[in-house]
Amino acid sequence: xxxxxxxxxxxxxxxxxxxxxxxxxxxxxxxxxxxxxxxxxxxxxxxxxxxxxxxxxxxxxxxxxxxxxxxxxxxxxxxxxxxxxxxxxxxxxxxxxxxxxxxxxxxxxxxxxxxxxxxxxxxxxxxxxxxxxxxxxxxxxxxxxxxxxxxxxxxxxxxxxxxxxxxxxxxxxxxxxxxxxxxxxxxxxxxxxxxxxxxxxxxxxxxxxxxxxxxxxxxxxxxxxxxxxxxxxxxxxxxxxxxxxxxxxxxxxxxxxxxxxxxxxxxxxxxxxxxxxxxxxxxxxxxxxxxxxxxxxxxxxxxxxxxxxxxxxxxxxxxxxxxxxxxxxxxxxxxxxxxxxxxxxxxxxxxxxxxxxxxxxxxxxxxxxx
Length: 370
Description:
Layout: H1 2-17, H2 22-37, H3 47-55, H4 65-76, H5 81-103, H6 107-116, H7 129-146, H8 150-163, H9 183-203, H10 210-218, H11 242-258, H12 279-303, H13 312-315, H14 318-328, H15 331-354
């Protein structure tokens, strides 16, 4: 557990020192990469199964070809399972590092969110290796699409598909409208989906998602694992997962609301990512994607096991948009975002304490392979 506390302390120090420094952000991301890449096999829910697959690798499953190539490459150079694990950790972190370095105007805040966000960007990088790698590439794809760099957008999207086929769910978001939703619509929608999610959880309205049941039946998934049992903590024995919703999903809604773009005074305003593109359209595209992803995340996370993984790549836009609004937003918005940053710090400590000792493949306590 100590290694995570050290990470949090370093993140807070760097945040207070200079939130605009790309070097500080890179240092923090590299620290997380080292912790992730040098972890032991028992750290992370799926780590051991991935390493076993590496040890007994056969070139039969080619649907996610790039991930399979990582097995082939490390086997070719005669590397161990530990070397493979570090290699894929580098691949996982690189898209997020590029996104933060190139697109964030407050990189240290972005790196801090990656570490401490209730969306578990850092912690789940030790669990869903394939999906979190594809998620970083999808994030880059959105950012390049936003700057009209279509070739880079397509390349990143294809690469993401090569690591996890679920990346296809992000495709419709690439064509989302660019005029930003009105603030009233965003607020009313988030309040509405929050109320609906609470009702769904309280009354266990699983029949509402009968379509998902049919899908899971076709995939031969056991009925007692269908609905909202996924969390590192929470009510693991029934479908009412209050802790996961209140501590993870509800703050995500507030993060989305706090990321709402400030009004742009003119086309040349420095709020633009790209000076050659209409600023209001740019901000609108990214926020609309984040907003729609948040709405869908509410529905899926409360209703389906691993539901938060379906749209997390879209919600990862908070890594770019929330720091942007902290810097460019009005005074009240900055106070709101600062409160969210403080919450993330408290949540981080609560999280590492709550999963310590649970027999669910937790990432705590930490141990290195050597």
